[in-house]
Amino acid sequence: MLEKIDLNVTIDKAAYRSAKEALSNKLGVLQRKVFELKIPVLIIFEGWDAAGKGTLINELLMPLDPRNVRVHNLKNETYEEFNRPFLWRYWSKSPEKGQITIFNRSYYSDLEYRQSLDGVDLQGLMNHVNEFERTMRNDGMIIFKFFVHISQEEQKKRFEKLQKKDATAWRVTPRDKDENKHYKKLLEKVNQELELSDKNGANWTIIEGHQKDYATIKVLNTLATRLEKEIKDFENAPKIALKPLIHDNDAQYDTEVLDHVSLDQTMTGPEYAKALNDCQKKLYLLENEIYLRRIPLVIAFEGWDAAGKGGAIKRLSSNLDPRGYTVYPTGSPNDIEKKHHYLWRFWRDVPKNGHISIWDRSWYGRVMVEPIEGLCMLEEYSQSFQEINEFEKQLSDWGAIVIKFWLHIDEKEQLKRFTERQNNPEKQWKITEEDWRNREKWGTYKIAVNTMLLKTSTSNAPWIIVEAQNKEYARIKVLKEVIAAIETKLGKSKK
Length: 495
What we know:
- This protein is 52% helix and 13% strand.
- The protein is built from 21 helices and twelve strands.
- The protein starts with 12 loop residues before the first helix and ends in a 5-residue tail after the last helix.
C-alpha cells in the first residue's frame, strides 16, 4: 500500500498560499455547521516519527474555533489507562456531538509497537478497532484517518538535523532510532494495519510528508471536501420522527424465554442466614484474590421494578472492601452523556484491573426503555444488540469477568410490593408515578426483555435469570453465581 506512494510531489509557494487561504476560510464555515448540526468529528493522525504530524495539526488548528476542538496526544498510556481495556482511553476521549477531536497517534500506534496486548492477538485487537469505528460511524460520527508517510532516508535525515541542536536533540528518542533502524520490518506491519482497517466511512488518506506545504494542503482539502459532502448529506437526509417501536402483543419481537421460568423457589430463616454468612465470607476472600491477580469484575443488574435489585446488591457488596468496588445507579442520561454514544458513560466507568463495577440498571436500557418510550430509531435499536455484544466481548477479551442478572417476578408479586411500598411511609420514596406507569406496559416490556435475553446472552457474557419471587432465595443465588464465576476464572471450579 505505502510502497506505491510517490513521495516527490510538491506545490509551489504561490499556489500553496492561495489554496491555504481558501481552504482555511471554508473549514471555519464548516466547523460552525458541524457545531450547529451536532455532528461529532474524529480526526486521527498516524505516521512515522518525524513525519510532521504535529506541524500538520498546528496548521489545521489555525482556522478553527478552539472552543470546539480537543487535541489528545496519545503516545504513552497513563497508569489509569494502562489498567483499563485497550480502547478505554479512546472511548473516554471520543468527541461530543458538535465537537472536533484530534488524536495525535491512536490505537493504531498501540498495535504497531505490540505484537499482542493483554492476551489478545493483533487480529483480535484490530477487530476491536474496526468495531469501535463502525459503532461511532453508526452514531453519526465523521471519521478522518491520516497516515503521514516519509521514506526511511528522509526520516534519518530529519533525526540527524534534530540531533545537531541542543534545543531539539531531546526529541529523538531511543524508540525513534529503533523505528528508523527497523523501518522496513515495521513497514510490513503498518501496511497490514492500514489494509485491515481501511473500511468504508473510515478510510485512510495517505499524506505524502516530504514537503510540508503539499502535506498541509492535502490535509485541509481532504477535510473540507468530505465535511462539505457529509454536511450536505446530513441536511438532505429524511427526518424520521421518533415513535415507540415495540407494542403489546407484537409478534415481530416476542419470544418465550421468561415463560419457562419457575418462580416457586423459597428460602427463609436459619437456612438463609447461614447461606448469607457463608457466601459473604467466601466472596470477601475471592475479592482479595482477584485484586492480587488483577482480574476485573463487571456485574450488571436488570429486572422488573421492585424485583429486589437494590437488596441483592446490598447483600453482594456489604462484606466487600469498599476500596475495591463501586456501585453505579443508572438513570436517564444527563446533558453531557447525551452528547456521546449511549455506551460512553458505561465505558467511562469500566473498573481498573482487580476492581469491581456493579451497575444497578445498565446499558440495557438502550434495548428495553428506549424502543418502548420512542427514544431511538429502529435502525439504532437493531444495531444496539451487536454493539452491546461487542462491548461485553471486548471486556471479556481484556480479562474481565462479565456477569448479567435479570431478576424475575410475576405481575401479581410486583403489585403486592408496589402496594406495600405505597402504604409504608419509610418506603414510599421507592415508588414513583413512573413505576406505576411502567407497570401498565408489563406486556410490552416483557416482549423487550425476552428479545434482549435471546439476542445478548453470549458465551462470554451469558444472562443469569434469578427467580426473585422470594427475596432471600434471589439474594443467595446472586451471591453463589458471582462466587462460581470468579472461581471458574481462577480455575477453582468444581465443574
